[in-house]
Amino acid sequence: MLVLPLGVLLLAGCAFAGGSSASPSSSAPEDPTAPAREDIERQLTGRDDVAEAEVLYRDDVTVPGSVAVDVTLAPGGDREVVAEEIVRLVWTSPIEPVNTITIEIGDPQDPPGLSRIVSLSDDAQREAIESQYGPRPE
């Protein structure tokens, strides 16, 4: 007979703990990379050759220090020029850590566009970028 009341209490406790109202301490932490990502997006979309831009950042066990930049070119845009600008903007940004930069550039006038992964773990790639744009910000 004690099992039923104990079970009811346990269920009531679970319902209370998993209620729909979240306390401020249980909400997701603010993304510290958001201002830098928004700045990169703003700089890219401010160019005449870029129609749209989205910058995403992920830093977890499965995808450590990855910046993904997805751009749609405006008519007449040069994908190689925009790709270089993406590398420069990410490299000189305060986003940290950055191990890879994934670049996807869609060109509605000349599909399929450009897809590139820049690995900053590769010493040759890192040194080439550092010699062109200087050291990463501290």
Automatic annotation (TrEMBL):
Residues 19-35 have a biased composition (Low complexity). Residues 1-17 form the signal peptide. Residues 19-48, 102-138 are annotated as: Disordered. Keywords: Signal. Residues 36-48 have a biased composition (Basic and acidic residues). This is Uncharacterized protein. It comes from Blastococcus saxobsidens.
